[in-house]
Each structure stands twice: as structure tokens, then as C-alpha cells.
Amino acid sequence: MTVAGLHITRPTGDLARQFLAWRHRPDVTRWFLQQRVDDVEEYVADWATYDDHDHQRSVAVINGRMVGQATLSVVDGQGQSGSEEHVVGREGRLSYFVHPDHAGRGIATELARDALGHAFGRLRLRRVQAGCFAENVGSWRVLEKVGMRREQHGVKDTYHAELGWLDGFVYALLDEEWRG
Known about the structure:
This protein has 180 residues and is of the alpha+beta class. It is 28% helix and 34% strand. Helix 5 (107-120) links the parallel strand 4 and strand 5 (127-133). The radius of gyration is 16 Å and the shape is globular.
């Protein structure tokens, strides 16, 4: 699916400020586990430079407006002592957000595909994982659309500020499974 006018780019301070304009809307924070931003300038500086080997952010823009973002964080895989070269920096954690006014148009899917392309291409990761609340149907559908498999269904394993303890899903994809 191609979203009309969609451009995937890297983060900038201006795009970070656009994100802050809608980041705290209740329809965004409903499934967002992070707290409010207290120091805007620190947040903008960090968000705009979040693009190195250990962290990468992709930003969705339509007609100059920031409408979504995906973050890929590189982490160490689990391993036995003495096998560090096989586990250090080899796995990724994927998350994404889309402006509620643009939800359901395929933007999160495009962001997730872009992040996975970087994970298995430039970063040469062996595995990427993503989690979501089981009740966040849109999120787990995105993960399935990009080829990730559901590996875990945790029963009431994550606390939601409004809804209490909810079930969660964990999805993953291996490098050799990526169909980019």
C-alpha cells in the first residue's frame, strides 16, 4: 500500500515540535506508555538526533506535516557468557505512533516497513521485536501486515493507566524471514 503524498524522512527539531503538538492528545496517549514531556528543549534535541547505530527514528510527513514516527532501538540479544560477539547489538525493539487524524491509512505499516528495512539492511540485526496491548487491534494488525509473528500472549501482563491490567502481545521477525 502506498499512502498518497507520504514521505519517510529522518528526525529534525521542527518535526519534533510538530510531534509535541499532538503527542499528549488522549487518543494518542491511550496506548502510549511514556509520560509527559517536562523539558521541551531537551526532548526536541534528543528526538532530532535519535539516529545512530543504537537508535533510529523514521518520520512520516505528508504535505510538510509530521503525521507519524517509528523508533528502532538496538539491544543486546540474550546469550551465554563468552559469546558476546554473537549477541551484542544484534536485536531491535520497534515502536510507532501515528497522528489520530491520519490513522487507518497505512502510515504505521509504511513506518514499520521502513524501520525493518533499516534493521535488517544497514544495521544487520538478526531479530526485531515489538509489543502492544492486545486491545490495540490496529497496532497488532500493523505488525502482522509487515510479516511479524505473534510469539507471546501475556495475560494481564501490562498495566494501563485507564483500563488496569491488560493482556499484551509480543511480535518478532528474524532477518532470514524479512521479505523487504
